[in-house]
Design a protein that fits this description.
single chain; 8% strand; alpha+beta; 12 helices; 5-stranded mixed beta sheet; Heat Shock Protein 90
Length: 393
C-alpha cells in the first residue's frame, strides 16, 4: 500500500519540492500509524478508550488535511504552520493536563511521540532555519508550561524532556534544503541525459541514412562519373557533380554551407580534380568541429585561391593528392601530399603563392616529396608558428 501511495504521489508531483512533499507525506503517515498502534495495543488498559480514539482521529484528520493541501500545491507551504503548530500544541496541553490524573494518565500517552515525529514535517514546511527554530521553541514552550503547571515538574527537567521538539524542526528544514538541491541536480542530470540521448539518436539516424545513400545511390553515381557510359558530356558532368556533392554530404553529415571554409576547400578541390583529372582525397574533419578556429574572410578567400593554384601545380606532376585540413595551436593548417609522378618539382614556381599568402599573414612551405603546407592564423592573430616538417602522418 505504501508503495502504491509513493508511486501515485510521485506521478502527481513535479518541480523541485516533490521529494520534500513525498517525505512529509510518508512521515505523516508513519505518525498516524503510531497513534493507531498505541490505541490498539493499549486498548485493554484504557479506562476511557473513546477519548483516546477521539484525539487520535482528530490528529489523523489534521494530518490528512495537511498532506492533501501539500499534494495539491505540489510543495509544503508555510501557511499550514498556522494550523499545524496550534494543533500539536493543543494536543500537548490536553495530554499533559490528563497525564497527572491517577485514572486517566494513559489515555493520551501517544501524543508525545506523535508530536516528535510531526515536528520533523513542520521543519520540512519551513523555508528558513530561523522559522523552524521559532516553531520548535513555541512547541517546547507549550509543553514545558504544561508539564510545570499540571505535572509540577521543575522547569529545567520539563524543558530537557522536550528537546526533540526543537531539534526535529531544524533537522526537517535542513533536510528540505538538501532534498531540493538533490532534486534540482537530478533534474539537471535527467535533462542532460535526454539531450545526450537525442544527440546519439540523431547521430545513429544520420549514420543509417548515410549508409543507405552510400550503398544505394552514391556508389552508382560515382561509378557512372568514372565510366564512359553516359555519352552526353553535359549529363556526365552533372552526374559527376552530383556524385561529388553527395559524397561531401555523406562525409560531413549534413548540408554544406557556402561560407564554410571546409566547403570552399572541397569545392576548389573538386573543380581542380574535374579540370585535370587527378584524384584528390580530402580529409577536413579537423576544421568542421564547432570549436574550430575562425578565419578572417580575406584570409579565407586568399587561402582558397592559392590552394587552387597549388593543387593545379601538384596535380599535373602527381598521380594522386591527399589534402588534409586540421587545427593548429593558432589557426588552420592545410597540407597537400602528392604520390607518384615526377620525382622532383620546381618549387620556385610556388614563390608567387607564398608571397600572396604572406601578405595576409599566412605561411607556406614546400618539401620535395612533394609536400606543401599552408598555415593560416585564426581571426585576430597575426602571428604564425613555422609549419611542421615533412608530411603529416
Amino acid at each position: 500500500m505504501m508503495r502504491r501511495f509513493a508511486d501515485w504521489s510521485w506521478a502527481r508531483l513535479s518541480g523541485p519540492d516533490r521529494t520534500v512533499v513525498l517525505a512529509a507525506a510518508v512521515t505523516r503517515a508513519a505518525a498516524v500509524l503510531l497513534t493507531v498502534s498505541f490505541v490498539s495495543l493499549a486498548w485493554t488498559h484504557l479506562r476511557h478508550p473513546g477519548w483516546s480514539v477521539m484525539v487520535a482521529a482528530v490528529l489523523a484528520v489534521e494530518c490528512a488535511a495537511i498532506v492533501a493541501w501539500w499534494l495539491g500545491k505540489r510543495r509544503p507551504t508555510a501557511a499550514t504552520l498556522l494550523v499545524d503548530v496550534p494543533t500539536v500544541g493543543a494536543a500537548l496541553v490536553v495530554a499533559g493536563a490528563f497525564a497527572a490524573h491517577p485514572r486517566l494518565g494513559l489515555w493520551a500517552g501517544f501524543v508525545m511521540p506523535y508530536s516528535v515525529v510531526v515536528a520533523f514535517t513542520i521543519g520540512l514546511a519551513c523555508r528558513t532555519i530561523h522559522l523552524a527554530v521559532l516553531c520548535g521553541l513555541l512547541l517546547v514552550a507549550v509543553g514545558t508550561v504544561t508539564a510545570v503547571v499540571f505535572q509540577h515538574q521543575r522547569l529545567p527537567v520539563a524543558a530537557a524532556g522536550l528537546a526533540m521538539l526543537i531539534v526535529n524542526p531544524v533537522v526537517g528544514a535542513a533536510s528540505a534544503r538538501l532534498l531540493r538541491r538533490g532534486t534540482a541536480e537530478l533534474d539537471a542530470a535527467d535533462a542532460e541525459a535526454l539531450r545526450q540521448l537525442a544527440d546519439v539518436t540523431a547521430v545513429q539516424e544520420r549514420a543509417r541514412y548515410a549508409m543507405a545513400l552510400h550503398d544505394r545511390v552514391l556508389q552508382t553515381l560515382e561509378a557512372l562519373a568514372r565510366s564512359n557510359v553516359l555519352a552526353d558530356p553535359g549529363l556526365h558532368e552533372r552526374v559527376a557533380g552530383q556524385a561529388f556533392w553527395l559524397r561531401r554530404y555523406v562525409d560531413v553529415g549534413g548540408e554544406l554551407h557556402d561560407d564554410d571554409l571546409a566547403t570552399g576547400i572541397a569545392e576548389t578541390a573538386w573543380e581542380v580534380m574535374r579540370g585535370i583529372g587527378t584524384p584528390i582525397e580530402i580529409n577536413d574533419a579537423g576544421i568542421r568541429w564547432p570549436d574550430a578556429p575562425a578565419i578572417d574572410a580575406s584570409r579565407r578567400k586568399q587561402l582558397i585561391e592559392e590552394l587552387r593554384h597549388i593543387l593545379e601545380f601538384l596535380g599535373t606532376h602527381c598521380e594522386a593528392l591527399v589534402l588534409r585540413a586540421t587545427r593548429s595551436d593558432t589557426g588552420i593548417r592545410v597540407s597537400i601530399l602528392g604520390s607518384g609522378g615526377d620525382a622532383g618539382l620546381d618549387v620556385d614556381r610556388l614563390n608567387p603563392a607564398r608571397a600572396r599568402l604572406a601578405a595576409v599573414g599566412a605561411m607556406l612551405s614546400v618539401e620535395p616529396i612533394p609536400y606543401v603546407e599552408v598555415h593560416v592564423p585564426a581571426a585576430g592573430d597575426g602571428t604564425h608558428p613555422p609549419p611542421g616538417q615533412g608530411p603529416d602522418q
